[in-house]
Amino acid sequence: MENPHTPIRAQALVIGMGPCGMFCAFELGLLGIYCHFIDILDRPGGQCAELYPEKPIYDIPAWPVITGQELTDRLLEQIAPFKPTFHEGQMAVSLTKTGEGLWRVTTDTGTVIDADVIVIAAGGGSFMPKKPPIPGIGDYEGGGVHYAVRRMEAFRDKDVVIVGGGDSALDWTLNLQPIARSVTLVHRRDAFRAHPDSVGKMRGLASEGAIAFRLGQVKALHGPAPHLEAVTLEGPDKTREDIPCDALLPFFGLTMKLGPIADFGLNLHENLIPVNTQDFETSEPRIFAVGDICTYPGKLKLILSGFHEAALMSRKAFAYIYPDAKLKFEYTTSSTSLHGKLGVGDAAA
Questions:
Q1: Measured between alpha carbons, how far is 53 from 30 in angstroms, rounded to an integer?
Q2: Most buried among 11, 43, 232, 280, by the most CB within 10 A?
Q3: Alpha carbons 98 and 100: distance in angstroms, whole number
């Protein structure tokens, strides 16, 4: 577990792990700059992996068709030689300047990262959970109510109630069953949007009595907030019953909001970050923005545009991180030094 009191030193910190953010690690890595990532999601991929993992994408160069998850997997493979560090399930909540001239980012879990340069690649903003309309649910957030699983161990020997019918609800039903005292999956109907294999495994566990599956909705929470002790379920016939619950995990989907980035002190235009088109730097030196979060005359919100922005951004980042070095332009097809960094060709031997 990361120490929330000791700052982590990074050359480049990328906020956002979507395709454009991940490609930053490749372009920066070619120049000898290594990245840390922060993302509120619990895995890389951004919108591609979270909202349309199986949706076909037709405008990625050299790929006539590729799904969101396939694109994510290929990018992870491409940046693997540069060994990026991922801080998943965390939101960047503050941005300040240190006495050493570095930018300091603090997350909502207490992780502190000091970086030479910041790259904001947050797409349309942070993914924020859609909250169910349960009276007083806000009082239990941070205690008994969780919109994401950041540490599985936190649910060991707990009575867990999971609400939802998508992949997240089914995945965590299966993953938490071995360690929780009990797991109850609640969904308003007996049909799911999740992968059929996950649904089959869930039904198997339910038939064995290893988990409980209940049709209905959670209508009320009980216990001295923020500690949860029980929830009230309402079935299709409107009958209600209380069941023990230490941890409620409602998975009602995600929505996009700019979130704390709006308070970073950057000059925003209609919730987007203006940049120059030479190096995609923002109004603050050493802070860049690429992908859908940035705006400039002629901007196109395309993944391939974000790849171009990442390439030019890396040049200016190099100047900040290695001020005494001369940047030599090299092609990956012919440069033996780049082959060494990528671990390919004779240089990899």
A1: 28
A2: 280
A3: 5
Give me the sign of the Cα torsion angle 98, 103, 106, 110.
Answer: negative
- Alpha-carbon distance values, 160 to 177, 230, 246 (Å): 9, 10, 6
Q: How far is CA 52 from the centre of its chain?
A: 14
Phi and psi of 319, rounded to 5°?
-65, -35
Beta carbons within 10 angstroms of residue 32's beta carbon: 14
Token readout for 261 is 């980035």
pTM of the model: 0.68
pLDDT value, residue 75: 96
Tokens of 284: 């603050």
Half-sphere exposure at residue 251, Cβ-oriented, CA atoms within 13 angstroms: 23
**Token couple for 275:** 């940049």
What pLDDT does residue 253 have? 75
Give ranges for CATH 3.50.50.60 in the chain.
Answer: 8-127+255-348, 131-252
Q: Where are the alpha helices (DSSP H) in the chain?
A: 19-30, 46-50, 68-79, 167-176, 196-208, 303-321, 336-342
What is the Cα 54 distance to its own chain's centre? 18
Token readout for 256 is 């996009």
Share of the chain above pLDDT 70, in %: 91
Q: Under 8 Å CB-to-CB from 221, ≥6 apart: which residues? A: 134, 135, 136, 137, 140, 144, 145, 228, 230, 231, 232, 248
Residue 331 and residue 156: Cα distance in Å, rounded?
Answer: 51
* Contact (CB, 8 A) for 173 and 152: no
Does 192 have pLDDT greater than 50? yes
Out of 3.40.50.300, 3.30.70.260, 3.50.50.60, 3.40.50.1950, the CATH code matching 131-252 is 3.50.50.60
**CA–CA separation, 218 and 134 (whole Å):** 7
